[in-house]
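Summary for the steering committee. One of the milestones for this cycle was to obtain a three-dimensional model of the protein with FE2/S2 (inorganic) cluster bound, which we needed before selecting residues for the alanine scan. The sequence and ligand used are listed below.
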Amino acid sequence: MSVLNLEVKRLTAVTPSIREIELTADGALPAFTAGAHIDVTLGNGIERSYSLLNDPAETHRYVIAVLREVDSRGGSTWVHDSLREGDRLVSTAPINNFQIDEAGETHLLIAGGIGITPLKSMSHRLLARGANFSLHYCARDRARAAYLDELTSALGERLTVHLDGGDIARGLDVSALLSKRAAAAHVYVCGPAGLIRAVREAARDWPKGTVHYELFRGDEADVAPRSSDRAFEITLARAGKTLTVPPDKSILEVLRANGIKIKTLCKEGVCGTCRVGLLSGKADHRDEVLTDAQREHEIQVCVSRALPDETLVLDL
Ligand code: FES
């Protein structure tokens, strides 16, 4: 995968807790499609994935936005406190696991909080295509809803804003919205895990491949270690090694610490990228992607663990 050396051209506070970062390079940047993200290595060595939010027709810049997380594991705090205009950052070329299905006839976009970023890029693309679409934007209040004025003037009636004031019951009624599916409709959701779960649940009868989702980066509480987590062992069948996964580390972290490369994207159990074959042992599956049948022989190593007294034998 190509590596990009990017310059931080401009930093803008788009809300008191969201910092927008405009990144450029010496020449044109690799093209991207709406919904794409880049994996950025921050100055403190941490790697984070950020969705590109600008118009995919632009080739001179990538624009990302980062929410300051209360319980930051180091990424968002560094971006807010240490990143300066003129700094250089290394990133991957754009990767897209959250594509618009352009065969769809109607596109329903649902954003929660900072999850607006890939959907903003999608709305640029869908507008340019003259597509039939609408965007539902959920936020606690206007002050926290990034890009609200821009989206309001660009999208007009296509935009519906749901401000819940912190009370989920006053927010978007996902079940009602998705209870009837328009012909060839696709739904795209990005936001907190709870919103994604609600959309997947409400659209469970929609045809396969019509419900697209991406967890916004930084929904860290959902994947933080639980106080009840215990250490367990994993055996790498092909490498002939046994490793211990301590209570405060994921299988993924232990594999990486031992030099085993595993591709990741969300690190939150929703994208399916870090899937590994599970040869034996009972797992505590904590992902949002595997079916029950898949769970018999596969595991998402970024979030899942072993059930008590189980050793997991992985196809590695
Ligand atoms: S990296 Fe996305 S499920 Fe593990």
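Key point for the committee: Residues 115 and 190 are 5 Å apart (CA to CA).
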